[in-house]
Model the fold of this input.
Amino acid sequence: MPDPVLVPILGDQLSRNLASLRGRTKDDTVILMMEVRDEATYVKHHKQKIVLIFSAMRHFANELRDAGWTVDYVQLDNKDNSGSFTGEVARAIEEHVPRLVSVVEAGEWRVREDIDQWADKFACKVEILRDDRFVCSQSEFDDWAEDRNALRMEFFYREMRRKTGLLMTEDGKPEGGEWNYDSENRKPPKEGLSAPERPKFEPDEITQEVIALVEDRFADHFGALDSFGWPVTRAQAEECADAFFAERIERFGPYQDAMVAGEDDLFHSMLSTSINLGLLDPLELCERAEQAYADGKAPLNSVEGFIRQIIGWREYVRGFYWRQMPHLQKANALNAQRGLPEFYWTGETDMACLADCIRSTRDNAHAHHIQRLMVLGNFCLLAGINPREVQDWYLVVYADAYEWVELPNVSAMILYADGGELASKPYAASGNYINKMSNYCKECTYSPSKKTGEGACPFNPLYWHFMDRHRDRLEMNNRVGRVYQNWDRMGEDRQKEYLDSAEAFLDQLKPAGKAWAR
Ligand code: FAD
Ligand code: DLZ
Ligand code: SF4
Done:
């Protein structure tokens, strides 16, 4: 093919409607897809995450070929694989002699920095296109953020509702009269609460080949592989979406914050891996949710909750990431310095809530939102774990983890390491919250009603230890400040019991001995 356009497609850009493919002709385009060591090892990703990405990439390449496109696909085990995106693009330029390299901007800072060098590095024109799979462009986010003292998801979300028209009445009002039905999304789980199984997919030949590759090359990475069942094609992802809209969305809203031991998915959509890879279009999913409401198949609090997660939180954290990078990686407003405990990797802890969330993380490369936030995240916040170690853990262990979405959620949302730029207060909670929203405590060695000493739920003294050590900062916060009245009313002796209890617990935490993440 003389002077083609070279279109590199990254592992999380598996969309047929990608900006760099639109308007291209098949006889004039070479698509380049690259499995590279740099991406597979910049952290030691969960084995399922690597299998998911490589298998989805290989399936996508085959679909493109079947549709008549020319695809130059570089496998990780190709013997002359250079190991980097830039190295492979250089090789492809030499081989195909393109007139233009057309690439959609990368989702992550690390990769975008590299791609920004391509125009200088290569003797060939390079265009970098906006990733318009997101509702909000960066310049639009910046315009919205520019003249505000504080960024709050809620106000951004309203803009996105107006922009998309989702759940808006004809006269420009929010459907049902309210913007946000979060207060109706906090139903504790009732006894025996269980959700229908989501579709899982037996590994086909392509996935099996990738599993063998990962077992061979990444044997020391975290996570189980035998339970792999993630959708790796758009058709499979659509089957998962169909199942969610048919069977689970109705109760998604009420039980959004509920946790049940052994019920790993509950009523969550389990679609984040497919959305982030590009297999599913986030806006199409929101439209399906809206339709489910219009058809009377799902209540407003479920549908609004789902749409808010996608055009609200998902878009908000992405805009926030690009505004805050690169310093967000190093932010540590609370000066948290403790190492991540070993049990985050082994799951060996007698705290039943953490043990179950870590088991699900190891077995599925997934935990649902409230587990990530109020169990795993809350513990790291209260125990003062160093943000870099927590960031690495979350980036490694979840199949849906890419830095643009992981970092704001970890650094800003759970650890308050940005000092409150993203969220108005830290999500700190004692054992009482977990006991209310889950059935974990029933099977736990500890008691959530015991506050200090032997057998007390560790979250209880840790909560007050956290509040006490950050009093100077948090007392000023009008959403938190009131708790200090309770603290002061306890008196010095009781306060000391809390603080001693927390310190005894923290002292026996064993930091991770092995380099699990990097
Ligand atoms: P559902 O509960 O069904 O929600 C629907 C969709 O909304 C999700 O698929 C996702 O696309 C979006 N969404 C929901 N919450 C968020 C959020 N806080 N930020 C961005 N998108 C959101 N999500 C990731 O995709 N990748 C991550 O690396 C990631 N890391 C997280 C780390 C922490 C500490 C926390 C608290 C949350 C994190 N999330 C992350 C958000 C959320 O936990 C997952 O998107 C969700 O659990 C995925 O499961 P689901 O598809 O069943 O989601
Ligand atoms: C996460 C990941 C992994 C493990 N491997 C690859 C890869 O070999 N090739 C690829 O194109 N993408 C991979 N990814 C996803 C990328 O990290 C992601 O697409 C970019 O970093 C986004 O900026
Ligand atoms: Fe978790 Fe505490 Fe409940 Fe045990 S008692 S499950 S540690 S919240």
Remarks:
- The radius of gyration is 24 Å.
